[in-house]
UniProtKB/TrEMBL annotation:
A Pfam family it matches: PmbA_TldD_2nd
Name this protein carries in UniProt: Modulator protein
Native source organism of the sequence: Sphingomonas pokkalii
Domain Metalloprotease TldD/E C-terminal: 231-447
Family per record: Belongs to the peptidase U62 family.
Alphabetized InterPro entries for the sequence: Metalloprtase-TldD/E_C (IPR045569), Metalloprtase-TldD/E_cen_dom (IPR045570), Metalloprtase-TldD/E_N (IPR002510), PmbA (IPR047657), TldD/PmbA_N (IPR035068), TldD/PmbA_sf (IPR036059)
């Protein structure tokens, strides 16, 4: 693979060519990635996949008109053709008065922060196979596990570079490692399945394959012989496996595109109380070795830790430059690029601060309620905030987690859920989005 300097040369060359071809402004993203994955099932190798790819995404502006093109053919002739086509497309595109590069005075200058995101990801297939086999073996060794859907291990490395015609140039590499296992328990119509996985930027930070496999096995056995429960209103506790999904719905509602299009249930909520007092949500792109850490955003702006919700109050939208111009605000450093086209927005390492109450205490005073460990379907309306999803988990009776339950639906409205939410004190930084165990009272359960 190319190094940072070589990747940046590719992006900068495309920008320079675009300017010479008549573009008033341009930016380019060069990405190169390689990945290797191994899957096993029932102790035997099932598949080995290796891929390597390079891509150049070019965006050009002619006045307020713009066009974006992508190519994986990086020969000089192909780039020349690509540039000419992009400029010609831009001249025919409709005007967009909000379009343009990020403000020049806001660009990151100097050396970007070193976040230690790359360990090289030099892993041989034999080592990945050994990890996958160990994970599956540990899962199948759990009493009650009857079959396996398989286990896998993988490693990848991505090289990214961004160059703009108004002075930004930056590049970085990031690696990723992962292990997963999925197993079944029971038989016939009473069969259940569950899984476990872990990923990390550095292989040294991965949980052991044995721990991942054992967790998958224990999870599926605990779900055997689920019960149906009657419908009604009751407290719902979201396990850490699913609690981060609520933060994902928040991010969709406060993205620049949702606000400028007026398609968000939080449209008029900036500066207002959205969560219960005491709830604070951060986005931290500077976490060393973080799953979603980044030294700059997709427009070349600096990034920094940001409180999105402070003591329950919504403090900011997530804005790239075009949305910021339309709203008369400043971009927030959350622009992302991928697959060509204009930038979108995305958080980096997003998390809700831990509360002060142990999860056992959150559960302990529930006379009759539900602990959710799996959510099914996409029944969330981003315009109204209406929330309705299939779920599975465990019944809570007189403060104790008792029997597994399934084939239920939980419903409410995200506005009400956010205001009624109580976080436990068990936050763990394990994924790109993290939240502690969460309790929400008064949700509607549709059961038997």
């Amino acid at each position: 693979m190319l190094n940072n300097e070589q990747a940046l040369e590719r992006a900068a060359d495309a920008v320079a060519r675009a300017r010479r071809a008549g573009a008033d402004a341009a930016d380019a993203v060069f990405s190169a990635d390689r990945s290797l994955s191994v899957s096993v099932r029932l102790g035997a190798l099932e598949d080995v996949e290796r891929s390597e790819a390079q891509e150049l995404d070019l965006r050009v502006f002619v006045g307020r008109r713009s066009a974006s093109v992508s190519t994986s053919d990086l020969s000089s002739d192909a780039i020349a053709t690509l540039v000419d086509r992009a400029v010609a497309m831009a001249r025919e595109a409709p005007e967009d008065r909000w379009a343009g590069l990020a403000p020049e005075d806001r660009l990151l200058h100097g050396r970007p922060p070193h976040l230690d995101l790359d360990d090289g990801a030099e892993v041989e297939p034999a080592a990945l196979k050994a990890r996958a086999l160990a994970a599956e073996e540990a899962a199948r060794a759990v009493p009650g596990v009857t079959n396996s859907e398989g286990a896998g291990a993988g490693a990848s490395r991505v090289q990214l570079a961004l160059a703009t015609s108004h002075g930004f140039a930056g590049a970085y590499a990031q690696s990723s490692h992962g292990i997963s296992a999925s197993v079944l328990a029971g038989s016939g119509g009473a069969m259940e399945r569950d899984h476990a996985h872990h990923s990390a930027r550095h292989a040294a930070l991965l949980d052991s394959p044995q721990a991942i496999g054992r967790l998958a096995g224990e999870r599926v056995v605990a779900r055997l012989n689920p019960r149906k429960i009657p419908s009604g209103a009751m407290p719902v506790v979201f396990d850490r496996r699913v609690s981060s999904g609520l933060l994902g719905h928040l991010m969709g509602a406060i993205s620049g595109a949702s606000i400028t299009r007026r398609t968000s249930f939080l449209l008029d909520a900036l500066g207002a109380q959205v969560f219960a007092p005491g709830v604070t949500i951060w986005d931290d792109p500077h976490r060393p070795r973080g799953i979603r850490s980044r030294p700059f955003d997709g427009e070349g702006l600096p990034v920094q830790p940001l409180q999105i919700v402070r003591d329950g109050m919504l403090e900011t939208w997530l804005l790239e430059s075009a949305a910021a111009r339309q709203l008369g605000l400043e971009p927030t450093g959350h622009a992302t690029r991928g697959g060509g086209g204009a930038p979108g927005v995305s958080p980096s390492n997003l998390y809700m601060e831990a509360g002060t109450i142990p999860p056992e205490t959150l559960i302990g005073d529930i006379d009759y309620g539900l602990l959710v460990v799996e959510l099914i379907g996409q029944g969330v309306n981003g315009v109204t905030g209406d929330y309705s999803r299939g779920a599975a988990g465990f019944l809570i009776e007189k403060g104790e987690i008792t029997v597994p339950v399934s084939e239920i639906t939980i419903a409410s409205n995200l506005k009400d859920m956010f205001r009624a939410l109580t976080p436990a004190n068990d936050l763990e930084f394990r994924y790109g989005i993290n939240a502690p165990t969460l309790r929400i009272d008064g949700m509607t359960i549709a059961g038997a």
